Amino acid sequence: MQQPLPRATVVDRTAFLIGTAAAVWLAVIIAIQGVRTQWALAWFIPIWAITAYLVLPRLHRLLSDLYVPDYFFGRTRTTDGLLGDPVNVGVDGSGPQLDHVMISAGWHRADEITAASTWRIIVSTLTRRSYSTAPVSPLMLFGRRHDVAYQQEVEGNPKQRHHVRFWHSPPGWLLPGGAHADWLGAATYDTDVGLSLFTLQVTHRIDQNTDVERDHLVETARAADGAVRIRLLRDFTTGYHSRNGGGDRFVTDGNLPIIDVSGVVPPEPVTVTHSEQGTAQQIARAPLSVITAVTLIALVTLLQLVGWLTDGTSLQLLIDADVDERIVLVVLLVFFGSFLLWQLIMAWLVLRRGRRSRAVLMVLVTLQIVFMAIDYLDGSTVLGLDWTLLTASVQAITLLCLSSESAGAWARRRRGSQPA
Q1: Which of 109, 300, 356, 401 has a 20 to 30 Å separation from 350 between CA atoms?
Q2: pLDDT at residue 275 above 50?
Q3: Average pLDDT in the 153-180 region?
Q4: CA angle, corner 214, sides to 212 and 215, nearest 5?
Q5: Ramachandran angles phi, psi of 231, nearest 5°
Q6: CA geometry: angle at 397 spanning 396 and 403, to 5°?
Q7: Does residue 412 carry a pLDDT above 60?
Q8: 285 or 416: which carries more pLDDT confidence?
Q9: Which residues pair with 77 in a beta bridge?
Q10: How confident is the model at residue 147, as a pLDDT?
């Protein structure tokens, strides 16, 4: 039976809807204002960015939650809710055993998606430099992103690579038909970089025959260690062809090979002292969405301060006002400055994994967006290609980042705990 949604999830989804509406609103305003200038073509870039990375993914997420089944049927899902790559391989064994076999087979463990790794993969793609541990886009299975991913770069070309994502199966969970696998994986081969058919985002395109990539993974694992065994679940699913979340066609015969690494003896793990463990936990990185949100909040605060300092209206009012009016103005200015300082403190606490701070920030940003929309509708504010429109855009992006699933999952995770 459908369980009632937790209160935190309801808050996140409400903020998510408001952020989506704000992104659509801003995209329309920028499009209208941009075509009136001589730089109309240049304004296509921010319009595309807002549409591809803010509007379309959120709309897909809202719609796909209505029609995509939330149970296992051999397909992954993108973070936008679209059906992703097929589940085409399983593994029996522990995490260290799987990691040892994959590394021995010439695969590299993919980096996590951070600001640094994102910038590095952009540079490596444009300059065609090797990046053997480049991050892979997140896919969802069992209601969570992949636990680990591996890849093999092809001839030092970051556009082409073998890669596979693995999810650890929930305790006691069985495949349809009653078979068991400790891990499930989705292996595909990236052929090039292009635009997603559904979201218009820049993404890797995959080869249509995913069975070839699955067999490549199996053969490299078998060759890496003599203790690896393979069993095959024939006709695990009916052979079919479909499209993944990027719009790429793929075909599969429906077989599911299980790579048994339970007999592999991995090397002894390096002993880590308690102080080293504490240090590692303290430097655990926040997801990119949280870092982006905090950075944008700092940017908005700076823009508001610059706008206030460069606007001589407040200073002139203080000069011309009598004593009583001057006291009121000073109180208002102090309140405004305190509000900006409090907003920065809340942003810092979000980086410290503060759950309440994140909720407070979402409420504050939502209120600012709502008030700006009211002022725009009643004619008090005119949104042109100026600081006001920039501030509104930054606030919409901030709200979408704060209400994202990755930000919510990271904030709700206990300090010092590690993902599955």
Answers
A1: 109
A2: no
A3: 88
A4: 65
A5: -125, 150
A6: 90
A7: yes
A8: 285
A9: 83, 140
A10: 94
297 close to 398: Cβ distance less than 8 angstroms: yes
CA atoms within a 13 Å half-sphere pointing along the CA-CB vector of 325: 9
Angle at 42 between CA 40 and CA 48, to 5 degrees: 100
Distance CA(280)–CA(276), nearest Å, equals 6
3-state secondary structure of 128: coil
Closest by CA position to 64, among listed 165, 166, 140, 145: 140
Q: What are the residues whose beta carbons fall under 8 Å from the beta carbon of 138, sequence distance 6 or more?
A: 78, 79, 113, 145, 146, 406
- Helix (H) or strand (E) holding 369, with range, is helix 355-377
Give helix then strand counts, H and E, for the chain: 13, 14
Angle at 8 between CA 7 and CA 9, to 5 degrees: 90
Residues 308-356 have pLDDT tens digits of: 666 666 666 666 777 777 787 778 778 877 888 888 888 888 888 888 8
Which residue has tokens 């395109």?
A: 205
- The yes-or-no verdict on residue 12 having pLDDT over 80 is no
- Strand (E) or helix (H) holding 108: strand 108-109
Quick: pLDDT tens for 61-120: 778 877 888 788 899 999 888 899 999 999 999 999 999 999 999 999 999 887 788 888
List the beta bridge partners of residue 260.
92, 229
Q: What are phi and psi of 294, to 5 degrees?
A: -65, -40
pLDDT of 415 > 60? The answer is no
- The token duo for 87 is 């589940």
- For the record, the structure tokens of 63 come out as 């719609």
**How many residues can be counted in the chain?**
420
Crossing angle of the two packed helices 355-377 and 405-412, in degrees rounded to 10? 150
CA 126 – CA 157 distance, rounded (Å)? 10
